[in-house]
């Protein structure tokens, strides 16, 4: 068996024993507090100095019984844990860690690593292939470990330095922060020589040891790592997602992909807020902005499905509100407005780019939001409809003949909020949660302006210079048009729902008829390419102050992608990410 190793500042005896036993195959090598160390080979030989007697005795008992060692680790305070293929035993580790270890073991998980950061206490991480659990570890380390979960090469080891640095080993990939420069260089040398990285350990005294018995096999490209490292090419050089985020001054991003109409993977990058240590996680909520519209459209179409009204009938009797006319509008246009046209941005209601000579009814497509400041009042739905103070948008009115356009109209979606509340007798936000979000399994999504505590760890918006916006996030009372908070993974559930004709996980959220109208006729969403083509897709983007997002679904390929960012220039970033993913999977 081949063997390669490199270390610094370890005891001379340890260096000698590693060299002698390493060619037999290293199952584990660990440093213990106070200068101790232990090595175990794959053929169950073991050698130790300065470890607890009970640990040494228990290790020997397992090896003599023919167990295969999986994990041997020590806490900063002298606790220890041994995991084999058949047993586990620990002393002095956090109670929660011991309980979680039992849960993993009972589930039959193949545990590859348990590691303890230098701060001690209830801080630890357990790795088991495509599963992990951690408490109180560095947030970027946790982010990257989570990004490894759906990969074809999940993280197998993580090691912490006494100064708070860390390194992650995932077969032919590795990441590190604040480890000795020579150690990082040697990790690169190992890989350049064609070896994987099997074991890396740091001692409390600053020593470190890098070992491997594994020659890197030929492996197919990993789509996630390929996407991360080759978003685009600039000046002849491949650009990573982190480089593109820096270029566009976008601190955070979340990406998720649908394959075979299921969430295939989700990864997160960067930070919730520039200059702060908290990282984006895959369950971090962003403002979806105008992607709120297709999600709300499912709710509006539910009203048709449930018999409240018809798509093509005059909508004005269902508003419970007297819809006014623009000065240049005809009174008969009100009777021509219907739900289908409103969902397609052709309903005659104030829209972006309406051709009106006076300018009184034109250039109204979106909403500016309201500062997240207690001194700034937020209008009610009635005030938004009327354009009355403290509303910062024009009154909603008929401004062109229905059936024209399309003229992109956020106002039309606010009008449909009024319709829903009048027809159901319920407020829009809780109705959508009960009838769309929860049935679709979008448990990390909310139309509420004030996020529930479970979602309060949300991304902050940033301006074009990458500076956090005042109040971190504007408020959008125009919920159906711009008020959804969600994750990229939840948006992929929404894509799967549309791809699967309205039924997801055996639960019908919207019937096939209405879902087909939505997808095939660009009703509540936009479409691209011929309907019958393999690359036919539907899409919607989102633009709120400090946030940019994009979804694309490919129903004929049973696929899709969602990207959410927290920067004003995030649209350039999400376009590049989506293009890279489309190219990799051959969707375009």
Task: Compose a concise summary of this entry.
The protein has 16 helices and 27 strands.
Give me some keywords for this one:
588 residues, alpha+beta, Hemopexin, Beta-lactamase, three-stranded antiparallel β-sheet, 27% helix, 22% strand
Question: How would you sum up this structure, described in words?
Answer:
Helices cover 27% and strands 22% of the residues. It contains 16 helices and 27 strands. A hairpin with a 2-residue loop joins strand 16 and strand 17. The chain is elongated and about 95 Å long. It has two domains: 4-217, Hemopexin; 227-290 and 429-585, Beta-lactamase, CATH 3.40.710.10. Helix 8 runs parallel beside helix 11 and helix 8 (292-305) crosses helix 12 (428-437). The model has no long low-confidence stretch (mean pLDDT 95). With 588 residues, the chain is α+β, with helices and mostly antiparallel strands. The two termini are 46 Å apart. A six-stranded antiparallel sheet has the order 19-18-27-26-25-24, with helices on both faces.
